[in-house]
Amino acid sequence: MILNIIFGILAGWIAGKLMGSDGNVIRNLILGLCGGVIGSIVLHFIGITGKGRLASLFISVVGACILIWLARMFV
């Protein structure tokens, strides 16, 4: 549980850096955790799956980048 939160924060932070968006710890946590869900759905549709912490981190980062991109489209 604690490790998932840490990976969520890390994924949100990485996505923020990749997309040029800075945020605080809470924003990064939300981005990382929601990004994990979004990334799993999107990557599953295109046939990419993975197991393990590194794959989960990658999926969360991809999903968080998608969330940042979507937020920019609507704001």
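Second entry:
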Amino acid sequence: MHLLILAGLYLFLCLLIGFLGRNRKLTFWGYFFGSIVLTPVIGLILLFASDPRKKTNDEG
């Protein structure tokens, strides 16, 4: 039971980091999968170290 709670918390943190990174260079999926593979702590460091995505003329 405790392992299931920890796995759910881990997945929630990865989703949260992905959500926060949706407007960054690697987008949602990059930060989400990066957090799963490298742990959410490293994913959060990557998130804060990255630059925002540059807008193109098509995005307004």
